[in-house]
Amino acid sequence: MLSPKQTLDTYFLEARRDLLEVAALLDRYDESVSREGHNAKDESKLESLREAMQLLANPDHTKSNRAEQLLTHFAKIN
Prior knowledge:
- 73% of the residues lie in helices and 0% in strands.
- It has helices at residues 4-36, 44-57, 66-75.
């Protein structure tokens, strides 16, 4: 089992990369909306990502299984 510091040291760069990927997706979407002049007809996937980020950002989930919560959340999306 890793210590808290070892856990952060081991997985931080990977997590940062994944968050940058999400940020890039959101930037690409915003740019396409700006270029096209309208949003997608169905933004449920975008809203799902925003809801997932809120779930992850909630500091009250220190004892919960965030990965399981995200899997459950994304299972609702087609």
